Amino acid sequence: MKTIWRNTFLTWLAGLASCVVIGLIIGQLLGVLLLYVLGSLYLQLYQLYQFHYWLRHSGRGAPPEASGIWGDVFDAVHRLQKKQRKSKRRMRQALTRIESSTAALKEGVIMADNQGNLEWWNNSAADFFGLVRPVDRGQMITNIVRSPEFFRYFSQKRFGEPLVIKSPSMEGIYLEIQTTLYDKNDHLIFIRDVTRLHLMEQMRKDFVANASHELKTPLTVIKGYLETLGMFKDKLPASMQKGIVNMSEQSERMEQLIEDLLLLSRLESNDKREENQWHSVSDIVKTITNATAPILSEQHIIDVHIPDNAHLYGAYKELYSAFSNLVVNAIKYSPEGGNITVTWESNELNGIFSVQDTGIGIEPNYIPRLTERFFRVDKGRGSKTGGTGLGLAIVKHILLHHDAKLQVKSQPGIGSKFACYFPASRVRNDNRPVPPTS
Ligand code: ADP
User: Fold this and answer.
1) Helices (H) and strands (E) in the chain, counts
2) In angstroms, rounded to a whole number, what is the distance separating the alpha carbons of residues 18 and 209?
């Protein structure tokens, strides 16, 4: 770099010296010098013109011939351009590969901006949602998928869990939708055909519901005979008396199990749902504490801190069932007695119903599994406490119906806290007369 500048300068200086000599010889020093300066200026302007012309024509082809510093500038720009073109070509190739591979995907992929306006989609997504290029580009996705569940899922950004809906364009096809936010809250939507899984799940649900229903009648008969036998218990030998008590206890458990299974199936199928209404939380909890009084031992203390004006919008029987499951668990799993605190708090985001106990607590690794059906921390404990292992699965479903979430905090030997977070839209803290529905 330095050498080029030095050579250029030395050449220019040599030219200047020659002009001085020629000027002195012919006695026209000033004239010859002026001619030299003008000539040098013309040469620079000419090179600049050539450079500009070459750039204006997108710099295609070889750069113009030039020597010295200009030649170096031309070469450097040419090299840079070649490099840029190469990386552009590579990027275009990568993009084409990505496009053709996503186009070949069985899963649908959609890119939408932060408002949900469609920007790009692959062929499978076009089939699943009936999208047409270019007509649907820029359309709001909720205008294309016109299902209330999808609208709620998308507008409330409930992207934590995948959503299963019917395909808006293909008869009998069920789709699982999973959305991720990226960049400036833009949407990346994956769509999967889950028809087979959905049908199998439906068959499983129907089977459980039908089997539970069918078991009810024989169990009622067995219970009836056991009750009759119980009346003549004193006349029977001691070994049979024990058997009858045992059978009665087990049939009670079985009845509870069937009731819980039927309730779960109803909740899952969204069947015959009670209408949502405003309910006083304090009234629900009072009914629960009255009902649980018989299972409380003398050592148990229940503290209730529920403001009278706390109201929750939902299905009464479901809310009763969820809250009572939590209270009954707190009693069951605090076997040595202990304090049970039932509270209602609210802030601008949530209304929070919580049940805290000073019972046996739960190991942290079991907490994520508590709402699984038939899950029990201690397998042997179920028969002693009379639990079905379905209580928290029921709670989870009910909370799902009420747009709420369950949070569990627990420490073995210290106690547990089960908190239900309801959205502010379902919560009211006043005693205004309540319309029957809203
Ligand atoms: P179950 O009918 O067995 O009580 P649940 O679904 O209500 O079934 O609860 C699942 C499991 O979670 C229980 O078997 C128990 O091990 C644990 N559990 C639930 N609530 C509590 C609690 N308050 N304290 C300790 N363990 C609990």
Assistant:
1) 12, 13
2) 109
Q: Is 382 in the pocket of ligand 1 (CB under 6 A)?
A: yes
* pLDDT given for residue 56 in this prediction: 83
Domain boundary among 215, 245, 269: 269
Q: What is the pLDDT of residue 58?
A: 67
One DSSP character per residue, 111-138 reads EE-TT-BEEEE-HHHHHHHT--TTTTTT
- Domain assignment present for residue 333? The answer is yes
Please report the pLDDT score of residue 236 as a whole number: 83
Single out the residue in 100, 128, 159 at which a domain terminates: 100
**How far is the centre of ligand 1, averaged over its atoms, from the C-alpha of 103 (Å)?**
48
User: Nearest 5°: phi and psi at 380?
Assistant: -75, -20
CATH code, 172 = 3.30.450.20
Q: What angle do CA 339, 353, 158 make, to 5 degrees?
A: 140
Number of domains in the chain: 4
Task: Give the residue, out of 256, 260, 376, with the most ligand 1 atoms within 8 A of its beta carbon, to mutate for a pocket test.
Answer: 376
Task: Please name the residues in contact with 287: beta carbons below 8 A apart, sequence gap of 6 or more.
Answer: 320
- Alpha carbon distance 107, 104 (integer Å): 9
CATH of the domain at 226: 1.10.287.130
- Whether residue 401 sits in one domain with residue 326: yes
389 C-beta closer than 6 A to ligand 1: yes
Whether 435 is in a domain gets the answer no
Residues 49 and 141 in one domain: no
| Ligand 1 center–CA 16 separation, angstroms | 100
Q: Which domain holds residue 91?
A: 2-100
Q: Is there a domain that residue 434 lies in?
A: no
**Confidence (pLDDT) at 437:** 46
What atom of ligand 1 comes closest to residue 390's alpha carbon?
6
387 lines ligand 1 (CB under 6 A): yes
Query: Which amino acid residue places its CA nearest to atom 11 of ligand 1?
Result: 376
Do 294 and 425 lie in one domain? The reply is yes
pLDDT for the residue numbered 386: 64
Q: Check pocket membership of 340 for ligand 1, CB cut-off 6 A.
A: no
Residue entry with tokens 């934590």: 160
Are 6 and 61 part of one and the same domain?
yes
Report how far ligand 1's centroid is from the alpha carbon of 375 (Å). Answer: 8
CA pair distance 314, 316, nearest whole angstrom: 6
Weakly modelled stretches of the chain, pLDDT under 50: 437-438
Q: Tell me how far apart the alpha carbons of residues 420 and 303 are, in angstroms, rounded to a whole number.
A: 18
Separation of alpha carbons 288 and 345, rounded Å: 18
Residues 248 and 149 placed together within one structural domain of the fold? no
* Cα–ligand 1 centroid distance for 175 (angstroms): 34
